[in-house]
Amino acid sequence: MTTVFAQSEPVIPDFGRGSACERDDDALFCWSWVKDNWADTLQPALLQHIVLTLIAVGIGSAIAFALALAAHRRGWLATPIVVVTGFLYTIPSLALFQLLVPFTGLTRTTAEIALVSYTLLILFRNVLAGLSGVPAEVRDAARGMGMTERQLLWKVELPLALPAIFAGLRIATVTVISLATIAVFVVDEGLGDPIYTALQQTFSTELLAAGGLCVALALVADALLVLIQRAISPWSRTVRR
């Protein structure tokens, strides 16, 4: 019995080193890793990325709409608003995070403040351009029909401004989806987390999977906004005969 044990090979346990593809240093992409890590890594990061984007675009849209409406009624406000929102837009994301951290800490709030600030210039200019682009004769006709300024805004100006508004909304949404990956430096949420992890480990599968999901999310969001625009403004479609 002693001889048998002496001649036995040492047992080296396999602590989940993954499939042959994952152990291959030359492998570019391993579907097996995606399947094994979808539920605990990629899916949660994707859902967090969607939440980050929805919050930023939602708050940014509300602020930009209010500012654009004020500038539409009082034209002198347009220039200072463009200057302020343009200044925020030019601040590098990492620098803005650094400026906010002493006040709001390493939290989602810090990430959202930065993301919202990058939507304001895009949304403000498009909403204002859409409202300002309504022909004067259309406004005069609406007033001649007895419409109040509130009715003119909601029944005439906003419907005609929808194409410009949605154009800005599409650009802002895609921008936020892209920039939300940088939020990983202040909060471990979104697709930036697996991307950053993959860069540290030089693991191409996780990098390509998370990056691909980010691109796919941007494309899907843009397509959904186009469909929503067509659904609520059928008169803006180009009719081909």
Automatic annotation (TrEMBL):
It holds the Pfam family BPD_transp_1. It is found in: Cell membrane; Membrane. Keywords: Membrane, Transmembrane, Transmembrane helix, Transport. Residues 46-226 form the ABC transmembrane type-1 domain. The keyword Methyltransferase does not apply. It comes from the Bacteria. It is a multi-pass membrane protein. The chain crosses the membrane at residues 46-69, 81-101, 113-138, 158-187, 207-228. Belongs to the binding-protein-dependent transport system permease family. This is ABC transporter permease.
